[in-house]
Amino acid sequence: MRPLSEMLADMSVKAKAVEDEAAAAQKETHQQVSQRIDAVKAGAKRRGDDAKSRGAKTEKDISDRWAKLQAGVRNQLDEIHSSMDERRDAHDAKVAQRRADRAEENAVAAVEFALAAIDEADESVLEAIDARLVANAAS
Taking the domains of the chain in order of start, what are their residue ranges? Predict the structure, then answer.
């Protein structure tokens, strides 16, 4: 598993790239933006496929994790933080290690979810720019 700090750095780089792509797309033609959309869709699919194959022990596990993550990432993390804070000193090293492992797994899942959301935002921004280009060309 990659360190969380590396995944967060990747997320920051990706978010900046989306911002830069949107700025560049504002000056492009409909065809160029359409090509960007196709590339972004392919990249998002590839990243999603990679995340599924990396993190999955079983297909059901992936499906359940993503559903839970989407339904309440913040709630899960708050519960983990609360539980760890309240019981940190009361548990032995094995229990603390298991809790830390689960917290790290949840953090990784949250970062993967955020990266997927950035991919979706990238696609949506480019599609909005493309729709505006088409609308402006029609008027």
Answer: 4-138
